[in-house]
Amino acid sequence: MRLRRDVLLSVAVMGGLLAALVSHPSLGDEPVPHWVKGMLCLACHKSLNKDLVDRFQTTKHSKVQPDDKMAPVDIYRRSVGFNPADNTYFEAGLGCQTCHGPGSAHLAAKGNDEKLATMPRPDQLKTANQKLSICGRCHADYTYKGQPFAPDFRPGDDLIKDPDFKLAVVTKPADFQQLNDFMGSKHAANDVTCITCHTSHEQMTEDHQLRKPVPDVCLQCHATAHPCKLPEAQWPKDSTCVTCHMPGGRHVFAVQK
């Protein structure tokens, strides 16, 4: 049975690779990576990194889908390879390439070292801004070159330092403004990023894809750095760090005085 399963898996992988090569005959020679179908990521990583894939498929990210009746920015946030010229996209939904970038070079690479070099990992990017940009290109209210999305963004780009990237001024809770709130916080000034607290596909048991429950996720830093000065006996009933420091669920990390 195992031999039969391995043969079927090999056939599925080779079939997927063949489909990609037929669609992109110059795959190995193309200097600019392009999008590939998400099933090609799964063809290998469902076997190589099964736990990782299984965890991602439990997240909200894995389940969102665009709707033609949505505003263009909402289609952009729910698809891969969005084309603002006609509001179409390469593939519906979010997947590996959303955070790791176009996969054609990774698919064509030979050997593990070359494959790793072609696929950016958000946690290994050099700057906090690069990491924040990956999440912020969807989780922010902004304009980029006059549009409310950045279709040419690729992981590793620094949107925050780009002069064409303009964050809107926000004053009340709303969806998709996490980066707007965050950039005014002391966390942002100290190179904390989204993935300090959240994860896309590592082990998680909490809402909002938190790495640990509150307050543990806060105490991974604040057990020693700037611990809460208010005695626990004075905390509001059933409160957590979030109650005071993220009012309305906003990522402002306000310091109470």
Topology:
Elements (H helix, E strand, L loop, with lengths): L1 H22 L14 H11 L1 H7 L15 H5 L2 E2 L10 E2 L3 H5 L3 H5 L3 H6 L10 H9 L5 E3 L20 E3 L10 H5 L3 H4 L4 H4 L18 H7 L18 H5 L12
Q: In short, what is this structure?
A:
With 257 residues, the protein is mainly alpha-helical.
Tell me what you see in this structure.
By secondary structure, the chain is mainly α. It has helices at 2-23, 38-48, 50-56, 72-76, 96-100, 104-108, 112-117, 128-136, 178-182, 186-189, 194-197, 216-222, 241-245, and strands at 79-80, 91-92, 142-144, 165-167. It is 37% helix and 4% strand. The protein folds into 2 domains: 2-116, no CATH class; 144-249, no CATH class. The chain has 13 helices and 4 strands. The longest helix has 22 residues, at 2-23. The strands form 2 sheets. The protein has a two-stranded antiparallel sheet with strand order 1-2. Strands 3-4 form a two-stranded antiparallel ribbon.
Helix run count: 13
How many domains make up the 3D coordinates?
2
For the termini, the CA-CA separation is 65 Å
* Mean pLDDT reading: 88
Query: Which percent range fits the helix content?
Result: 25-40%
Please outline the major beta sheet. 2 strands, antiparallel
